[in-house]
C-alpha cells in the first residue's frame, strides 16, 4: 500500500509540504522470482525410444548429438531434464513443439 503523509504548515509562509512518502518495495524473494527465466522440462515416459528423444532434441533445439544424448540420459536416469530456458513465450513455444513430437514436457520457473 502506498500512502502520502502531509507535514504541518510551515511557519514562515503558511504553505504545507510533503513531509514523508511511504513506498512499498517488493520483497527480495518476490523480485528474484520475477527475474528468473522459465525452463522447459522433458519428462521420462514409457513410450518413446531413447534414440527418438535424442533425435527430437537435436531437431527442435539444434543440439549436437553428444549434448542431446546427455540430456536424453538425464531424462532416462533422473526422470526429467531441463532442455531449454528463456522468456515465458519462448518456453511455451518449446513445450508445444515437444508435445507435437510426442514427448512429455512442461514449463516452470527456474529454481
UniProtKB/TrEMBL annotation:
Alphabetic keyword roster: Hydrolase, Protease
Classification via InterPro entries: ClpS (IPR022935), ClpS_core (IPR003769), Ribosomal_bL12_C/ClpS-like (IPR014719)
Superkingdom to which the source organism belongs: Bacteria
Subunit structure: Binds to the N-terminal domain of the chaperone ClpA.
Keyword Secreted part of the UniProt annotation: no
Domain Adaptor protein ClpS core: 34-105
Annotated GO MF terms: peptidase activity
Name of the coding gene: clpS
Pfam families the UniProt entry points to: ClpS (PF02617)
Protein's name in the database: ATP-dependent Clp protease adapter protein ClpS
Organism encoding this protein: Halopolyspora algeriensis
Any one GO biological process: proteolysis
Physiological role: Involved in the modulation of the specificity of the ClpAP-mediated ATP-dependent protein degradation.
Gene3D superfamilies xrefs: 3.30.1390.10
PANTHER family assigned to the protein according to its UniProt record, in alphabetical order: ATP-DEPENDENT CLP PROTEASE ADAPTER PROTEIN CLPS, ATP-DEPENDENT CLP PROTEASE ADAPTER PROTEIN CLPS1, CHLOROPLASTIC
Transmembrane intervals: none
Similarity field: Belongs to the ClpS family.
